[in-house]
Every structure is written in C-alpha cells, then in structure tokens.
Amino acid sequence: ARAPARTAPAMKDGPPRPPPPPGKVLNKDALSDQSGLIKLDETSGAIPHRVSRAVRVTDDLFIGGRPNNPVIVQSMINEDTLDLDGATASIIALHKEGCEMVRLTVPSMAHAFAVGYIKDKLRKEYMDVPLVADVHHNGMKIALEVAKHVDKVRINPGLYVVEKSDPNRTEFTKEEFDAAQVKLKKMLSPLIESLKSQNKALRIGVNHGSLSERMLFTFGDTPQGMVESAIEVVEICRDLDFHNLVISMKASKVPVMLAAYRLLAKTLASRGDDWNYPLHLGVTEAGDGEYGRIKSTLGIGTLLAEGLGDTIRVSLTENPLKEIPVCYGILQGLGLRRTMVEYVACPSCGRTLFNLEDVLHEVREATKHMPGLSIAVMGCIVNGPGEMADADYGYVGKNPGTISLYRGREEIKTIPESEGVAQLVQLLKDDGVWVEPLTAEEKEAKAAAPVSAAK
What is the pTM (predicted TM-score) of this model? Predict the structure, then answer.
C-alpha cells in the first residue's frame, strides 16, 4: 500500500500581541518602504559608502571617515564592573580576539570609580584598550565621573532623564514636550562640556524598546520616534559646538532596525553636509545560536551593503568572544575588511571529481594562517575556472584522480589529486606569498603579549 501523502506543516505567527496603550503607537509608514537607501554600483558590484566624519576615540582609533578608516568592531563584557580582575581579564580576552573597542556597564557611582581602576590595570598589565561606558537611568553624575576614565560614553536618550509615568496621561502638550527638552539639555550639557574639554566621544544610543514616554505619545512606537529621540540630542550637542558623536538606532526586530537607520541617514543628510555623524550598527537582543547570528547578519549586513555603518556590534546571548568572528565574517563577506583567508568553494554536485568537503578542509588547514589571501576549491572544470575568477589561487578538479592549480585565471599545472594540497603550498612558496605558520611556542608568546586590535 502506498504511504499517505504528506502535507507541509502549517506555519503560524503565534498568538497576537496585546494592543498597546492608547496613543502610544501611531502610524508606521516608515516601515512601508524597505527598498533600501543606497544602491550597489551596477557596473562593478562595489558597495558605496555614506560619507561620515571621522570621530576620534583614541589617537589610534577613529569611527567614521570611510574609506580611509575601516569599519570598527566592538563588543561588551558580561562581568560586573565592580569585579576588577574579572572585568579586566574579559576586556583583554576580547581585545586579543580582535575587538577594537570594549563597552562596560556603569549603573552606579561605585561602578564609575571602578572603571578608573580597570583602566589603570589595563595600562599596567596589558595595554590601553579603548573603553566605552554605558550610562543609563538619570545618569548625569555617573556619566561625569566615568567620563574621566573612558574614551567614549554611551547614553540612551530614553533613559538618561527618567520621569515618573502618568497612567492617566492621554497626550503630551507642546508646552510639556518643550519643558522636557529643556530639562534634557540641562542634564546633558555638563557631560557634553566635559567630553568636549577632554576630546572624547559620545554615542547617542537609541533603543526601540526604551523610547521616552513623550516620544511614544508624540511620534509613536516607530522608527520616526527613534530618529526624533536622537536628533534632539544631536541638536543639543551642536548648540554646544560638540561634534564628536556616533549614533545608533537599535531594535530587536530587523525590519524596524533597518527602517530606523535608513530614516536617520536621510534625516541627517537633509540637515546638511556637516550632519554627517558616524553610525553604530547592531540588532539588539538578537538571541543566541544560529538564529541570533542570522538576525544580526540580516540587519548589519544589509545596511553595510547600502553604504551605511561605521562601527558594528553583534549582540549574542553567549560569551562575547563568540561575537567577534561573526563581525569579521560580515565585514569580510562584504569585502569591507580582510581578516582571514577567503575560501571560494562550490556546493558540489554530480560532476564533482573528488570529495570536495574533505579537500576544502585540507586546503583550509594548510593555508588558514594567511589572512588576505583568496583561494578557490572547485569540483570540476565546467564552471570552476569562471566562477573562481576573483580568487588569487584555485584548486579545480579536471579528470578523475587529477586536479589543476590556478593562479587567478591562469592554469599553472595539472597534477595527481594526492599531491594537490602540497603542490598548492609549493605554488604559494614559489610566488613568494607563503608565510610559515607559527610554532606552538610562538603562538603561546603571541597570546601572552599585547596586540594591536586594528586589522
């Protein structure tokens, strides 16, 4: 008897969300057009870049100013900042992994003082790693103290000045809205003046989930509300002639995050060329595992491909060390930074003349220590030579038991498959591009020594 036909499982969106409080969610027109802000160069495939000013973090690290400066990778430690040894160790580990700027939370004055001790420990025990302080609720005094010890301060406009919510409120009058703006400026001005006098940076870090009540009532739970929240802080900074600014528009939903950054970029551009502040990209609360990485790549990668973004953080519910490879993978995949060997490999098919998965692994193990190199491993000559054209070197199946080695589009030699990896290494040596891998002792010494995070 024939087995009964199988039907695909029904896909469901889950239970509907409860309706929001009246007046707090207005129209979401900003989400209706997700066609992108900047188009790829259709003749070359090159990614354009939004022109942004270079914002100094340290004398050796700037955000923005692309293409002269790279997209910067950053992360955040999980340790309590009061744990001086634990926090310092995590910062060092992140920096050695390739993180170029490390953020830590500063919820109290005790934490602010602790950051000063952490900075000293880094200088004495390792090196002066660029640090960012995360300051939240009613944080003026905390921000003023921690600004003495870090290279950059991040504030959330929706939480920096927190007022008690009125459950009976139905609207914000213009007078109430303007009064809140005045209060925000009063609370922010001392921090801005402090950062300005020290030549330090500020990130205006807006989060979709923590907009102020007046923004919610006035603009709704929307990308527009996020942008307006950032713009009023930018205006305060500009009134005080402070421009060492970076802006972020983070949301846990990728479409909201995309819409907010696109609207921000358009809004800044409409204000004039000198509103070209760099953008920090991230999908907040992306989660963990494969899906967290997919969400982060969709959000960050899409905007980078449109030319937006000067620094990135992948937010995973995992050890922060696991965020850094994802960041570099996104940047390398878009050709924005080359921090590892680029391997081009076909997915394999019936024409493949060798075990492609095994050979790719062997090639990777032999060459993975030479970042910047591009190597193709292709299963046959039908599409291989053409599809690997952008690679520096190629390993292509030609006949059963034989492979061809390529330098770019040029076929160099045909050899037995059993000699393929060894002959590829020899070709790299003959061309003068081979670098000997580090010995175990050299790896140990490198791991113990301070490193430059720039890559």
Answer: 0.87
